[in-house]
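Quick review question:
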């Protein structure tokens, strides 16, 4: 039998940018907002650790189809590191495992160390992570005191800027690729400076170009749900807001029907091949297609906005 649909829930399509509070898992935050919206279908992308705060894109209804595209998006974090102390988890929720003196370096010297991490590199994931080894989560093994070998993974640091250095407090902003573990980055930065450190605070500022100003606090959403639900729904962004970095193609009526049916189209489009946003000429968002070098447009994700499930 298929999953039962709550008859009281509604078909709601859109993306909401939650400013996730500390102390909640990403899924706990999602379920709270899903209940507030009375939404039928929901998903999130780019999980944040329970202790971390900041931008967590929540996708509802047809917008859940953009989750896979957001997983590959770059992200920006504001990071507060505590120098001189190492924790087994890499953050403040763990137990102290080492300590070291903090070198007296100037802001220019710290920026030089940060700059050395720019570009492409390989990073070893932490033991306290949700990655799996032989079918078991690494954090489950770590909690048992086990350490296993982890394969390094490619990451990219596009920008990293010192914001503050005061005693054992180091604050910086980093713009990085998907798959970057900031906790490991903090430890590696400290090691290059000749000390140890852990991530005391992690706040995600942006995902895929979404603006910080568009984030909503959970407390504000709860108040809006009680007083003016229509205003709450008004905070939802359209699904294609998550795809603005993709080029856009507009189709005529015949091509629209073919696209909706999952069939290829020959299009006249002056642009690079690859993924594109697809619209009807009257601006209706149709979905995501893949354009080949010969001008063939193949549907990748077809959206049915506004259609109600039974």
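Suggested answer, residue by residue:
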């Amino acid at each position: 039998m298929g999953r039962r649909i709550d008859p009281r829930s509604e078909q709601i399509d859109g993306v909401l940018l939650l400013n996730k509070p500390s102390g909640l898992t990403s899924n706990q935050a999602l379920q709270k907002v899903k209940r507030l919206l009375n939404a039928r279908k929901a998903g999130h992308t780019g999980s944040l650790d329970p202790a971390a705060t900041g931008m967590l894109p929540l996708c509802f209804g047809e917008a859940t189809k953009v989750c896979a595209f957001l997983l590959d998006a770059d992200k920006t974090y504001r990071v507060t590191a505590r120098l001189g102390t190492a924790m087994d988890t890499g953050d403040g929720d763990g137990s102290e495992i080492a300590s070291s003196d903090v070198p007296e370096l100037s802001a220019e010297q710290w920026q030089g160390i940060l700059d050395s991490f720019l570009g492409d590199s390989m990073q070893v994931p932490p033991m306290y992570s949700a990655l799996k080894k032989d079918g078991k989560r690494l954090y489950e093994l770590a909690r048992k005191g086990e350490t296993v070998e982890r394969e390094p993974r490619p990451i990219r640091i596009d920008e990293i800027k010192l914001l503050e250095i005061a005693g054992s407090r180091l604050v910086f902003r980093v713009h990085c690729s998907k798959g970057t573990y900031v906790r490991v980055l903090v430890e590696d930065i400290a090691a290059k400076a000749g000390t140890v450190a852990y991530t005391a605070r992690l706040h995600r500022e942006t995902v895929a170009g979404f603006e910080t100003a568009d984030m909503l606090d959970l407390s504000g959403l709860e108040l809006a749900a009680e007083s003016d639900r229509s205003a709450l729904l008004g905070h939802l962004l359209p699904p294609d807001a998550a795809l603005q970095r993709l080029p856009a193609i507009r189709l005529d009526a015949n091509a629209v029907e073919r696209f909706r049916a999952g069939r290829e189209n020959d299009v006249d489009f002056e642009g690079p091949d690859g993924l594109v946003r697809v619209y009807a000429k009257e601006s209706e968002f149709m979905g995501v297609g893949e354009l080949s070098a010969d001008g063939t447009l193949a549907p990748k994700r077809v959206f049915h906005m506004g259609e109600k499930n039974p």
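Why it works: The chain has a mean pLDDT of 89. The domain at 14-72+210-240 is CATH 3.30.2350.10 (Pseudouridine synthase).
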